[in-house]
Each structure stands twice: as structure tokens, then as C-alpha cells.
Amino acid sequence: MSREIVAGVDGSPESLAAADWAAREALHRGLPLRLAHAWRWEPLDLPLVQDPEAQGRAAHAVLREAEEEIARRHPDLELSAEVLPDTPVAALLGTEERAEMLVIGSRGHGPVAGFLLGSYGQQIIAGATRPVVAVRSRDGEGAEPPAGYVLVGQLGTPEDSAAALGFAFATAAARGASVRAVRAWSLPALYAYSPASMRLADEAGGLVPYEEKALREALDPWREKYPDVRVEEHVELGSAGQVLLSQSGAAQLLVVGRRAKRGAVGPRIGSVAHAALHLAPCPVAVVPQG
């Protein structure tokens, strides 16, 4: 089955920015773009006149306006649009079978970080099996610098970060951009490292060379697969979220991985992804592992 990029639209400037970013990414990758708007008639338990036909026409109007604007901006794009009869989260997740990625809007910076992305966005990212890109609005356009690198965080073993690295390299190759791969590390707490792991660090010449070696080994298969992509390596002492954000100012895209975690109230996106989504100045791709 051929893949496509799917962007959720709801009539807001943020969703138009997401659709605009998705259109440019679809052109980079030679893929079609599908715009999706969720609407399902659900009568309210209120003493009001409720007209399902009028609401349905309004939903189609939202989608039509977005489709016309994206077609005007990107006339060479293969574009389709669809109203999906479901809730926003279920509707967008239901497109994953044929989606290369999902693209959603984000409201940007503000004083209450936990509410910037929105509950729908967090649920989509937490539940998705495909990469999800959150795009900030800049006058209805997806904000990203005209040049710059694709920034990706590498954590743990090569297997732990394979999905995020693969997405970052594929994106950079499609755009003709470089990759900046970042690995953050911290000083081990007393007794935290086993004698075996400390022996490996000693053999590598210390903790910093050990972390640099771990990053190189994680990057090796992707360098081999994408030999034309230039790669910069950055290893820094600090928390993963802080180190990634410090490198994100000139990034076209920040890519982070997401483990399948469940909390007391459902799936979680993880602290690094949460920090990136709410504080990074560029679009953020969250890639599920495995």
C-alpha cells in the first residue's frame, strides 16, 4: 500500500500551519497529502435548537477552505481531503494504516507549558504507531528556518533510538539537509553503574569517550544507508531535554523517540518529548520505538 502524509485540520491557524508544513514535506518526499477533519454528530443535552445538517455543512466548509488554501500555495502537490466521522483522536489515529506520518498543529509558547499542545494532540502522540509531527503557527505557516539541520536525540542503545534516527536521516535526505545527532549523559550516581559497565567506560578511555563511542555506533548503520547525508555529532553532559533544546535554535526539525509508556491516566509521551513539544522553536517529530 502506498504511503501518504496525513494532516489534521480544524479551522484554526495552528492546523493550517500544520497542513502547510505537511504539504512541503510531502513535496520533499514525493508523497501525496491528505487533509483530515473530524466531525461526528453528537447532540448536546441542552435546550437548544441543534441542526446536524448545518453542522455537517460547517465541517465540510472548514475542510474545503483548508484544501483550497493549501492547493493555492502548493499547486504541484497531490492533494486530497476527507471529513472523518469520528472524534478527533480516533479519526486521526484511524488513518495510520496508510500514513507515513501524522501532522498536527501546536499553539506555541505560553506560561502554562502543560496546556500548550492540547489534550487531543497529546493523546494522538501518545497513542500513535506512526511518527507524529507537531507544528507551531507562524501566520498560518509552519515555522521552520529556510536552512538548518535535522536535530535528533540519541538515547540508550542503537536499538533504542533506531526509529528516531531512521526518521531523522530519511527527512534530511529528502530535504538535502544535514543531521545533528545529540547524546546527553550524566555522571553516574554512586553504585549506579555495574562493574562491567564501568570497565567498558575505562576501556574506552573514560566516560566522555564511552558516550562518544556509543553515539558513533548508533549512527553507523544510518551513515551507511544514507551516505550523502552529512552528520554532526554532539555529546554533552546534562539532561536530554535541556541539551536537545540548547541545540534546537537553528534546526529545521527536532526528532525525539517515544517509548510505549502507560501511566495512571493512560499513555504517556515521556519527559524528553514533552519538553521538546512545548519549548522547542521548531517543528517536533515524535517517533514511537519499535
Summary keywords:
eleven-stranded mixed sheet; two-stranded antiparallel sheet; Universal stress protein; Rossmann-like_a/b/a_fold; UspA; Universal_stress_UspA
Helices and strands, in order, run as EHEHEHEHEEEHEHHEHEEEHE
How far apart are the first and last residues' alpha carbons, in Å?
20 Å
As residue ranges, the low-confidence spans are 109-116
Biggest sheet layout: 11 strands, mixed
Count the beta strands. Answer: 13
Class by SSE composition = alpha/beta
- β-strand amount: 15-25%
Tell me the Rg in angstroms.
21 Å
Integer count of domains: 2
* CATH classification class of the largest domain: Alpha Beta
* Fraction of residues in helix: 25-40%
Give the second-level CATH assignment, the architecture of the largest domain.
3-Layer(aba) Sandwich
Mean pLDDT: 84
Q: Give the full name of the CATH homologous superfamily of the largest domain.
A: HUPs
Q: Could you please say which CATH topology of the largest domain applies here?
A: Rossmann fold
Shape: elongated
Number of DSSP helical runs? 9
